[in-house]
Amino acid sequence: MSGIRPRAKEKARDGQNDNLADDDAKDQARWEFESDRVFAGALLKAAKLAGKPAVVPSSLRASIEGDAPKDKDNLPGYWSNRGRLAALDNRKLDALAYYKLFFLTRKEAPKAYHGKLRDDEMDEALALWKELGGTETAWAVWSKPPSGSTEELAEGRWEKPKKTIPTFELSDLSGKTWRLKELGGKTLLINLWAT
User: Fold this and answer.
1) Measured between alpha carbons, how far is 69 from 130 in angstroms, rounded to an integer?
2) Burial classification of residue 80, based on how many CB atoms lie within 10 Å of its CB (0-12 exposed, 13-18 middle, 19 or more buried)
3) Radius of gyration from C-alpha coordinates of the chain
4) Is the pTM of this model over 0.85?
5) CB atoms within 10 A of CB 132
6) Is residue 66 part of a domain?
7) Do the Cβ atoms of 45 and 80 come closer than 8 Å?
8) pLDDT tens-digit profile of 104-117?
9) What pLDDT, on the 0 to 100 scale, is given for residue 48?
10) What range defines the domain where residue 149 resides?
11) Helical H runs in 1-109?
12) Cβ-contact 103, 62 below 8 angstroms
């Protein structure tokens, strides 16, 4: 996140290391984004507890409301902080929309902390839902993950083939011969696999 000052010197120093491999540079950028997100999230929580939205500096606001990151691993943190900032600014419906995007993009389920399941974003969204007069029944519908896991939704997709399938002739168990050229123009699913 740009605009966060506490780590500016450290970032400048790290940015001078041009000996990093591409994967290491990506990991470093991901770590920097995550540490900035955690800092921003903590500041937003503190401002909410204090009831003082003005505590959030304009540079931090601009970085939180900036464009979504291109790295999909950073999206959940981005939407989480967008939701927190919108809630802090009393834009509760916007906050719920951002929290929903957080739930759709997070790849890991919340973990137990000191023996208790801790899901801050879910708790924050539920509090907003109740403030807006939402019912438990509607909450159960809104908060339910879509069919299939979040990871499957993020990874599962149809892609156009990059190569054409080679021509073939195959005999099925009844002895009928199938030729690819005779199947042209028809809707066909071919499942290719090997042992």
Assistant:
1) 30
2) buried
3) 24
4) no
5) 11
6) yes
7) no
8) 998 888 888 788 88
9) 85
10) 8-155
11) 8-15, 22-50, 58-64, 75-88, 92-105
12) no
